[in-house]
Amino acid sequence: MAGTSLRTIGLSMKNADWANTPQHSITEFFTIGRVLNSIPDGDGFLSQIELVKVHARSLEDFQNLADGSPASQIMKIREVNIDTETISIVMANLNGPFFRMLRSLENVWPISPTNWEKGSGILVTVYGDQPTLRTLAKRSREIMKTNKILFTLSSPKTEFFVEEIPDRRRETVKTAITMGYYEYPRRCTQRDIADRLNLKQATVSEHLQRGEMSIMTSWSDTM
């Protein structure tokens, strides 16, 4: 990897969106999970994880889950390091669809902070080379079956982040730029953009606001 430019990307989902995925079932047992470190292991990762229990028997209840249950497919505990009434620290395999996909890619690794919290959402931070992170970002939406994943890249190259904006939204932002929407004074309105793209004005407004948020979020990481 000599000469390769390495970056860090954060993939996050707000609780309202994460709650609609099978992975959210882990919060029925552990309200908070913090991945302390990870190493590749099989088709997933072996991680040391700090878990905040829902109740004193949460760890035991989780270990007794049937193999086919959604939560058991996300995390398989191999060793218990510490177990109290409120917190457990365990060595566990992260084998959910996302981590299996991540493991299949070369030159990327999950790092801290990687955590979830019931009521707040989930964050996975990944370190690796830029081309693979681009692939990771695109595949993540397919794996998680949602477009509600937010990406934050620790790099001044905001154009990389723009590539991860959904196609229709990116087209709308590019059309707005081409038509002079962001010039001063503006040379067009949202209605003009809507007519050009055969969209409703409300749809154009949403695409522009979300596109602007994505670009500004990426840019603000470099300030």
Structure characterization notes:
With 223 residues, the protein is an alpha+beta fold. The protein has 2 domains: 149 residues, no CATH class; 59 residues. It has 9 helices and 8 strands. It is elongated, with a radius of gyration of 20 Å.
Question: What is the topology?
Answer:
Blueprint: E1 6-14, H1 15-18, E2 30-41, E3 44-53, H2 58-63, H3 70-74, E4 75-83, E5 87-94, H4 97-104, E6 108-117, E7 121-129, H5 130-144, E8 150-153, H6 158-163, H7 167-178, H8 190-197, H9 201-220
Antiparallel strand pairs: 1-7, 1-8, 2-3, 2-6, 3-5, 4-5, 6-7
Note the run of SSEs as H and E: EHEEHHEEHEEHEHHHH
**Count of helical stretches:** 9
Please state roughly what percent of the residues sit in beta strands, choosing from under 5%, 5-15%, 15-25%, 25-35%, 35-45% or over 45%.
25-35%
Low-confidence stretches: 156-163
- Helix % is 25-40%
Radius of gyration: 20 Å
Question: What is the CA-CA span between the terminal residues?
Answer: 27 Å
If strands are numbered along the chain, what order do they take across the biggest sheet?
4-5-3-2-6-7-1-8
By helix and strand content, what is the structural category?
alpha+beta
How many runs of DSSP E, i.e. beta strands?
A: 8
Number of domains: 2
